[in-house]
Specification:
By secondary structure, the chain is an all-beta fold. Helix content is about 0%, strand content about 50%.
Length: about 110
């Protein structure tokens, strides 16, 4: 019972840096979503086929953006050659269901 099928696809690379639209498929009973979006602490982006860095501090701290009803979120401008992480937590019957961690890398 959590969000799935992220767009851009998890692990995508060469994503445009302008007007990036994140979207997901919600679970059936979702009432709203907490959106988290942040840039990797590492200065270099992941290369094609490279795996995520390991360790608790590898991805940085999740940054809460907002709670919303829709299953999409747009960001106008992102840094080039950077890896971004995002997570969507669902609110169901006043409970927070933490979603999976997703990432993509910009051109």
């Amino acid at each position: 019972p959590y969000v799935f099928l992220p767009k851009p696809r998890n692990g995508s690379y060469r994503i445009d840096t302008t007007n990036v639209a994140l979207s997901w498929i919600p679970s059936r009973n979702a009432e709203s979503f907490n959106v988290y979006f942040w840039k990797s602490e590492f200065p270099q982006a992941l290369k094609e086929g490279e795996k995520l860095k390991d360790g608790p501090s590898a991805v940085g701290e999740p940054i809460f953006i907002r709670n919303q009803k829709s299953n999409s979120y747009s960001h106008q401008y992102l840094d080039s050659n950077s890896t971004y992480y995002w997570r969507i937590d669902e609110i169901i019957d006043e409970q927070i269901i933490e979603g999976p961690l997703w990432h993509f890398t910009t051109k």
